[in-house]
Design brief:
The complex is a heterodimer of chains A (about 350) and B (about 575). Chain A is built from eleven helices and four strands. Chain A has about 350 residues and is mostly helical. A two-stranded antiparallel sheet of chain A has the order 1-2. Chain A has a two-stranded antiparallel sheet with strand order 3-4. Helices cover about 30% and strands about 20% of the residues of chain B. Chain B contains 22 helices and 22 strands. In chain B, the strands form five sheets. In chain B, strands 6-7-8-4-9-10 form a six-stranded mixed beta sheet, with helices on both faces. A six-stranded mixed beta sheet of chain B has the order 16-19-20-13-21-22, with helices on both faces. The N terminus and C terminus of chain B are likely disordered. Classes of the chains: A mainly alpha (about 350), B alpha/beta (about 575). The interface between A and B is large, with 55 and 70 residues.
Chain lengths: ~350, ~575
């Protein structure tokens, strides 16, 4: 998901798409798990919509944007009749010269969109919020419960939303514009509040707050947070090249310190929590492979970004087609990151072959 | 066995063998607010069963939440008096500190779930309490097996039926092996068969859970049950102590269920009948009442004018369902073998009919109602309104003839005032403003006893008032057919009675009324015809007396208490038995 968000480089994107698409197809055809097949089927309509949207997205830049130095063909051009444009601003023109750059831009955006959607769908089918919760470090378990509740809340809200619309339609209420949605939200909010009160009572009655023992380490958590914010602020606002000495980005020291403090604080919190787990979420070798591959991949993408630097981009992550298209470059680190993502897929094949008689 | 508030407790703490001890407790939500509880005193022995009853808003829920500290810790408020539960002080410890001593099952099981799967949901409390994994597994096995949830262990909660969900909620509360188990109206969403199953389960709890958790005598004491319920015929006889709340802020009556219910309107039908006929001791169950002679045998000339209601006089048909089939779109594609929700349902509704729509959870009742009002389109067959296929009509045209009050009536309401709701319906159907009984009080409001609330925001109304407001909003369109989906859920006996009277009046004016419900006592009093769905098919359709007394009524436990008592289809209600039938049924 990270590469799909980070880059417009069509080579990277195409690779991501192949990988994620493969995983999704694998899940949707998985003969051993009915749940994942049904889950995958449930996502199909949304994916179809996403692909359609992506297709439209790919069409927009070529038709509307005429920047770029490599015109291919010229379409008849029409000025869009947009009323209310301020004086002196030219109306956008539909048609006109179609440039290679704009096509490339459209295609890469569309690729990114589909890859992102597919990654999200695959994650949802493959992982279950509550199971993930058990895999989290103990200190995060409480936040994890909240997350799990939120995840289960969404389908219920969707269901309620549908029924409220139905009930209101019976009264002759039509949903024509945004204003007609107000009654829906009022009822949805009221019901959500009622539900959350019961839920909170239920959490209390089952000892969710009882596990809250003496909780030291909150100060450290706060300190880590401050360091992280300071580090991020420095990165964003500090002048170019600031803090770089002998090739090492000293300006990022607060950031690194912040991460370290965070990990230490969480570990400490984890030790003081008396919460236990039904299963230790036994990490099978394949789970380790997935986690390591994903973590490694993120690390590589980030370091590729660092290596690329801000001025001259050699990682290829920052590829941008305008003003003149270039062949997207790739960097070994970027490719390695993607290759890592493929490891779990290969591992499962290998496992399957090994377990086959 | 039964101790009441007058029983002295030892000075140091809880009397030995007492699970719950409450002495002169008073509570108000605000310092300057009215009292919600006042002068509550009672004691429940270990393993005892306390029934909490009373009209809506009388303080039942507040009382239950007092037992595990949710009141006053979660909700705030001012408490006086002494509370001891399982030897602890919930006021000092709060819900967290009480959570391993008091299990709590809330009214709506869905709203209390935190996980996606059965096992995770049940284990949640154990994880919170830091129970070691080995012990956790042992307790899970015991409780899941004890509640017959073993096969469902890894299922997603969303795929469970209402009864199964309620069992999961029960398991989640029991898994901490609490001394006290509190259930807040646990059957309000269950069909009669599932409700019976739940009560049987509660009855057998000691045997089901005691076996593997140690030993019979030296093990932990049996669970003490506290249960609130509207439908007392199913539970009154199972309790050994009852606490009956009356008007808000009045001290409740505490005593044996028989004493407490002796002169209450909430009492089961046999108790009310026994009271009228001077039976002693007053029966609580059909079995106890069987000792007394049926009224006809006792006095054959008591003027009973019962003509068995075999013939139903029918007006002209308004709605006709012909061979209705329904399947949720997309259920075929997923490759699962999902049976159709409705499989060929045919029936007609005539003007002025009072029809009860019965059937277990998931039998297709709500789906049928939605098809009739055009919210769903049939997969096969058709719905006709005055002979016209509803597929040719738009929703507004259908709803000017067919009114539908959904399960959750507040979903219908979206105007600023109650009077505004009536105006909105009239306008959207192109009807002139409704006649008014007073300035800005349109007729439907006056009729539903809402005149005083004409200018109130619908969300500021109580549950019962909100439901009447929804009904007013629907009736404003002057429909010829009125469909109601479980309108009595959470209504107490007097409000239920008022609703039944109103629906009878509407029918007398020529409106065809179809009411989906699980409440067989209401059906016995109000309906003239019963339509029973089972697995998406019509299992029975005919005069209510025949259907309830017939094999389907037996199998699905649709028999009201007096029918269980004498097996005489002519006697379904107290009024039947006393020969007080009004002349409207011939």
């Amino acid at each position: 998901m990270l590469p799909a968000l980070w880059t417009r480089n069509p080579i990277y994107l195409a690779l991501v798409l192949v990988l994620v698409g493969g995983t999704y197809l694998g899940l949707s055809l998985d003969p051993s798990s009915e749940a994942s097949r049904i889950g995958a089927a449930g996502w199909r309509p949304l994916l179809r919509l996403g692909i359609l949207l992506a297709f439209l997205t790919a069409l927009v830049p070529p038709l509307l944007v005429h920047n770029g130095e490599t015109p291919l063909i010229a379409l008849p051009s029409v000025a869009l009749p947009l009323p209310g444009l301020p004086e002196g601003v030219a109306a956008p023109r539909l048609g006109g010269p179609v440039t290679l750059e704009s096509i490339a831009y459209g295609v890469s955006t569309a690729l990114g969109l589909v890859a992102l959607l597919l990654a999200f769908a695959t994650f949802n089918i493959a992982a279950e919020a509550y199971a993930l919760l058990r895999a989290l470090p103990r200190a995060l378990a409480r936040s994890g419960v909240v997350l799990s509740i939120a995840v289960t809340f969404v389908p219920q809200m969707m269901e309620a939303q549908k029924e409220i619309r139905e009930a209101q339609a019976l009264r002759g209420h039509r949903f024509r514009g945004l204003r007609d949605l107000a009654p829906l939200f009022v009822v949805l909010l009221a019901e959500g509040l009622e539900r959350s009160i019961t839920l909170a009572e239920s959490l209390e009655a089952r000892g969710f707050s009882a596990e809250l023992g003496p909780r030291r380490g909150r100060g450290a958590l706060l300190f880590a947070f401050v360091l992280l914010v300071a580090g991020a602020a420095l990165r964003v606002w500090a002048p170019q090249g600031w803090g770089r000495l002998a090739g090492f980005p000293w300006g990022d020291v607060p950031l690194l310190l912040g991460v370290a403090t965070l990990v230490a604080a969480l570990a400490r919190l984890g030790r003081t929590s008396q919460r236990t787990r039904l299963r230790r979420s036994v990490w099978r070798p394949r789970d380790w492979v997935v986690a390591l591959a994903a973590g490694g991949s993120i690390l590589l993408v980030v370091s590729a970004h660092f290596v690329g630097g801000n001025e001259v981009d050699s990682s290829g992550l920052g590829w941008y087609p305008y003003p003149r298209i270039t062949v997207p470059e790739t960097h070994p680190l970027g490719l390695a990151a993607l290759a890592l993502l493929a490891v779990p897929l290969l591992w499962t094949r290998l496992e399957a072959r090994r377990s086959a008689p | 066995m039964i101790e009441t508030g007058t029983e002295p407790a030892t000075e140091t703490g809880t009397a030995i063998g007492t699970a719950i001890e409450i002495r002169d407790v008073g509570f108000r939500y605000r310092e300057d607010g009215p009292p919600v509880l006042r002068g509550v005193s009672l004691a429940v022995p270990l393993g005892g069963r306390l029934l909490v009853a009373g009209p809506s808003g009388s303080g039942k829920s507040t009382f239950l939440r007092l037992l595990n500290g949710l009141v006053p810790h979660f909700h705030g408020g001012v408490l006086s008096g002494r509370v001891r539960v399982a030897g602890r002080d919930p006021v000092a410890l709060g819900p967290g500190g009480m959570s391993d001593a008091v299990g709590f099952v809330f009214q709506n099981p869905e709203a209390q779930f935190v996980a996606e799967r059965v096992e995770d949901e049940v284990a949640f409390a154990l994880e919170n309490h830091g129970v070691p994994p080995e012990e956790m597994r042992r307790r899970l096995d015991t409780v899941l097996a004890g509640l017959d949830l073993g096969p469902l262990r890894h299922r997603r909660l969303t795929t469970l039926s209402g009864g199964e969900r309620q069992r999961v909620a029960l398991a989640s509360a029991l898994v901490l092996e609490p001394e006290v188990l509190v259930l807040d109206e646990p059957t309000s969403q269950l069909d009669p068969r599932s409700a019976d199953g739940l009560f049987r389960l509660l009855e057998e709890l000691p045997a089901r859970l005691g076996g593997s958790s140690g030993s019979g005598s030296g093990g932990r004491p049996p669970v003490t049950l506290v249960l609130s319920e509207h439908r007392l015929d199913r539970v009154a006889y199972r309790a050994d102590l009852a606490c009956l709340f009356g008007d808000t802020g009045e001290p409740p009556r505490v005593g044996s269920p028989r004493e407490v219910l002796a002169d209450s309107d909430l009492a089961p039908p046999v108790t009310r009948l026994g009271r009228r006929l001077g039976w002693s001791p007053l029966p609580l169950t059909a079995a106890e009442a069987a000792l007394f002679p049926p009224p006809s045998a006792k006095d054959p000339t008591d003027g009973r004018t019962v003509v068995r209601g075999r013939t139903v006089v029918r007006g002209r048909n308004v709605v006709h369902g012909r061979d209705l089939v329904f399947r949720y779109p997309g259920t075929r594609q997923t490759g699962r073998d999902v049976p159709n929700v409705l499989r060929g349902v045919s029936f007609a509704l005539a003007a002025g009919e009072r029809v009860a729509l019965l059937g277990p959870n998931g039998s297709g009742k709500s789906t049928l109602l939605k098809l009739l009002v055009g919210l769903l389109r049939p997969t096969g067959g058709r719905v006709e309104l005055h002979g016209e296929d509803t597929r040719d009509l738009d929703l507004l045209e259908i709803t000017s003839t067919v009114g539908f009050v959904p399960q959750n009536p507040s979903r219908l309401l979206f105007q600023e005032t109650v009077a505004g709701e009536v105006r909105y319906t009239r306008e959207s159907h192109g009807l002139p403003p409704a006649a008014e009984t007073a300035p800005n009080v349109p007729v439907p409001l006056a009729r539903l006893d809402l005149a005083a609330h004409a200018e109130t925001h619908p969300f500021d109304l109580s549950t019962g008032e909100r439901q009447r407001a929804a009904l007013a909003a629907i009736l404003a369109a002057e429909p010829e057919v009125l469909l109601l989906d479980e309108p009595t859920r959470g209504l107490d006996a007097p409000r239920k009675e008022a609703l039944a009277r109103l629906l009878a009046e509407l029918a007398a004016e020529g409106v065809a009324v179809l009411l989906a419900t699980h409440d067989v006592e209401l059906v016995a009093r109000w309906a003239r015809r019963a339509l029973v769905l089972e697995d998406g098919e019509v299992a029975a359709d005919g005069p209510v007396r025949d259907v309830l007394a017939g094999p389907v009524g037996e199998r699905l436990r649709l028999r009201p208490q007096l029918l269980r008592l004498w097996g005489d289809p002519a006697i379904l209600t107290v009024e039947d038995a006393l020969g007080l039938r009004s002349g409207e049924e011939r």
